[in-house]
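Progress note, sequence design subtask.
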């Protein structure tokens, strides 16, 4: 996957639209009015020439145009992500979005859960990171795998786990449109790595969709994750480590607890 975000416009388009609008307005005011008023003769001739050039109105208008274009691109991107999420109806719709749209879809699903989402552009063979989630001071690395007809193996999960220390993150997560192999599920036991299969992702999407879906939920029941996968996909709210199924010694009831217990009591 050859990746993106090389130009200033690409970077700015990834910002929220209101940041681009604010940066455009402040930059325009600085170049159009504040800089000409502040400009003073300086000792170095080159410095004086540079200030005279930047004080020209054309630069103020050019900067404003760039920021407004970035604002429009940002708004268009946000609209596209909303449409992607609100129109998903089943596992097949997850498998036909295309790998880039799948990343946008996953990012929007977590964004609606209250995460700050960074689309890194570091995925693929050289990085293995598509998204970075931030919430409550915790950073989670996310790799998205749109694999519908094959299981995500342990090699993918092991490589992402190896990036945790390098990027100094708190947890990692692999989100797939399909399923995970038994080896992959066994590997994450006791590690701050969560596996989200397609059925669990679809359930999460349906919980945050703003547009009503007419397809009955019962039609999805046969494709929902097995108890093992569902437990693996859940993460602790305190430390983001995977949750595991535990039994209350007094009542015998089952519950989900942090895999890092007793270090974490989430």
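Output:
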């Amino acid at each position: 996957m050859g990746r993106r975000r090389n130009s200033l416009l690409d970077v700015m388009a990834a910002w929220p639209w209101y940041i681009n609008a604010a940066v455009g307005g402040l930059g325009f005011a600085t170049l159009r009015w504040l800089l000409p008023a502040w400009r003073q003769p300086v000792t170095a001739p080159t410095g004086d020439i540079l200030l005279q050039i930047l004080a020209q109105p054309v630069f103020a208008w050019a900067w404003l145009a760039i920021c407004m274009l970035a604002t429009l691109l940002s708004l268009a991107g946000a609209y596209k992500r909303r449409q992607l999420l609100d129109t998903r109806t089943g596992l097949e719709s997850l498998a036909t979005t295309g790998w880039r749209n799948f990343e946008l879809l996953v990012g929007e699903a977590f964004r609606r859960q209250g995460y700050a989402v960074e689309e890194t552009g570091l995925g693929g063979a050289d990085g293995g990171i598509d998204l970075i989630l931030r919430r409550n001071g915790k950073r989670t690395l996310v790799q998205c795998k749109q694999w519908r007809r094959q299981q995500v193996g342990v090699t993918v999960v092991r490589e992402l786990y190896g990036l945790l220390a390098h990027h100094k993150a708190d947890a990692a997560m692999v989100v797939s449109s399909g399923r995970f192999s038994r080896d992959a599920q066994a590997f994450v036991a006791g590690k701050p790595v969560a596996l989200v299969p397609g059925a669990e992702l679809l359930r999460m999407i349906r919980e945050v969709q703003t547009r009503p879906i007419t397809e009955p939920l019962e039609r999805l029941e046969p494709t929902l994750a097995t108890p093992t996968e569902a437990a693996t996909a859940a993460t602790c709210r305190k430390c983001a480590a995977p949750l595991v199924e535990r039994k209350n010694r007094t009542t015998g009831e089952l519950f989900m607890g942090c895999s890092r217990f007793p270090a974490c009591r989430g």
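The mean pLDDT is 79. Work on this subtask will continue into the next period as scheduled.
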